[in-house]
What we know:
The longest helix is centred in the middle third of the chain and has 29 residues, at 107-135. Strands 3-2-1-4-5-6-7 form a 7-stranded parallel β-sheet, sandwiched between helices. The model has no long low-confidence stretch (mean pLDDT 97). The chain is of the alpha/beta class. The radius of gyration is 17 Å and the shape is globular. It is built from 8 helices and 7 strands, in the order E-H-E-H-E-H-E-H-E-H-E-H-H-H-E. Strand 4, helix 4 (107-135) and strand 5 form a beta-alpha-beta unit. NADPH dihydro-nicotinamide-adenine-dinucleotide phosphate binds next to helix 1, strand 2, helix 4 and helix 6.
Amino acid sequence: MSKPFDLGGRVAIVTGGNGGIGLGMAQGLARAGAALVIAGRNANKNAAAVKALQALGAKVAAIEADVTQQAACRALVEAALAQFGRVDILVNNAGINIRKQPQDYTPEEWKSVLDTNLTSAFLCSQAAYPAMLKAGGGKIINIGSMLSIFGAAFAGPYGASKGGMVQLSKSLACAWAKDNIQVNAVLPGWIDTELTRAARKEVTGLHERVLARTPAGRWGGPADFAGIAVFLASSASDFVTGAAIPVDGGYSSQA
Ligand code: NDP
């Protein structure tokens, strides 16, 4: 293992790679030498992210995709293969939240959160599996949350989806270790992105509570996810699988 963090010649798909944590991870992977395929629904955000990644010297393709749809997940992998010839890394990062008390959700809202945050990861992993087999191995990184561990009154479906991400990661890790595919979850603490900008408005006192509870004394930023992405995507982590790793400034360690 001469350069354990080198991703030269590797191809990574990042769902939700057009902003926030996904773009932070994509930038880390690009700096380590990977070619990137980013997937999101919003064409303008996709175009801006392509520019940001190309500025780092990376080969990049953006695919307009709704990863709640199995056909879109399959088409995403096909597009990566057509463009770059292989798929080595899959980051299942696309996510949404709808904040309400449990008694107020409609079944459609529940399904929308579960489909976007959890089912999409299953469908994209299934779609990428044959390509990873062909490449001789692969790395799947699933994005969980502090709500993979803790509960919150305003996050029933979101918490269920993020708890599910950890258990899905363990099952995929067990099934595909024999194929040299490692599957891990990353559990972000509170990170300043579009998603949490809305939460700060909707949940009174959230900003101050996060600062008080986080030993690092700050909110995280997308750049805080570059290092963990490179580690979990590279040969440096070949004996790490089925793990759920907090990247949270100590939030989950604080009583
Ligand atoms: P953002 O809202 O910035 O990013 C979410 C991304 O998901 C966007 O790129 C969005 O792109 C994409 N996306 C959403 N729905 C779909 C869909 N159906 N198909 C394809 N892409 C989709 O939020 P974050 O960066 O904060 O969130 C990224 C991940 O991190 C999520 O899974 C979130 O749950 C998780 N997380 C975030 C935390 C935080 O504090 N910010 C804490 C813990 C976990 P587009 O709109 O173009 O479709």
